[in-house]
Design goal:
Shape: globular
Largest sheet: none
Order of helices and strands: HHHHHHHHHHH
Radius of gyration: 19 Å
Keywords: Cell cycle
Family: Belongs to the SAPS family.
Number of domains: 1
Number of helices: 11
Region (Disordered): 166-237
Number of strands: 0
Biased composition (Acidic residues): 201-228
InterPro entries: SAPS
Structural class: mainly alpha
Mean pLDDT: 79
Strand content: under 5%
Length: 237
């Protein structure tokens, strides 16, 4: 159904996103501020929605967003809603999915499950002490309508499935969505068993465009999508 990716996402951009995830695990304010200043989140969100069937990418971006919301850098968290336009893009993606599934033999777009998880994460964090600033964004009428018409009914169906009390499935689209909830994939974080440390003198080098040799003394050989201008240039391809 999805067909080939054109152009391919490329391993280089996946590697850059994994670097971002590692930097967030370090909880280093300087690195986080640099990510925000370089405009990383708009590019990350562009990739998320462009590659509609790339599950590995969607899971990775979901973890990035969760790490940002769990961190203590309010400026970085705000950038999700301002620079990344996260709420508007979630709403638009659901509208696009509604149109997409109207055609015969079409299943939901590939990122819909991750968007549900992200939306629930946003609402959970908005209720925590110290996150009162989030009301500025989640109180918007469009987001309130999304919660009422999309997220809350979907969560209710999921809860019923967990209790084994779903008996009627009104249409194929609904059945596919419910089937996705039956065995939700566990989030596997490859960085749980590593402590990320970067010498202070080298942290700035993570963001410049001079890649140089890798740790084995060989020139870096990214197999595709190699960009210029450091990490963000690689992401933008």
């Amino acid at each position: 159904q999805a067909g080939p990716l054109a152009p391919p996402l490329g391993s280089s951009r996946i590697k850059v996103l994994e670097v971002f995830e590692g930097l967030l695990k370090m909880k280093n304010r300087e690195c986080e501020d640099k990510m925000r200043e370089m405009g990383a989140m708009p590019v990350v969100m562009d990739l998320f929605f462009k590659y509609e069937w790339h599950t590995f990418l969607h899971n990775l971006v979901q973890r990035l967003i969760e790490d940002m919301l769990q961190g203590g850098n309010e400026d970085l968290k705000r950038s999700l809603f301002t620079d990344g336009e996260l709420l508007d893009r979630i709403i638009s993606a659901h509208a696009r999915n509604d149109e997409w599934v109207k055609e015969p033999k079409r299943s939901r777009l590939g990122y819909m499950g991750q968007l549900r998880n992200i939306a629930n994460t946003i609402m959970a964090h908005s209720k925590q002490d110290g996150n009162e600033w989030m009301s500025e964004y989640i109180s918007q009428p469009a987001w309130g309508h999304f919660l009422e018409s999309e997220l809350d009914p979907t969560n209710e169906r999921y809860e019923k499935l967990q209790l084994g009390s779903v008996h009627n499935r009104p249409n194929t689209h609904q059945q596919e969505e419910d089937d996705d909830f039956t065995s939700p994939p566990a989030t596997i974080n490859p960085y749980d068993h590593f402590n990320f440390r970067a010498p202070d003198d080298d942290q700035e080098d993570l963001f410049d465009g001079d890649e140089g040799p890798d740790e084995y003394g060989d020139e870096k050989d990214y197999d595709d999508d190699e960009g210029e201008g450091g990490l963000l240039g690689t992401l933008m391809g």
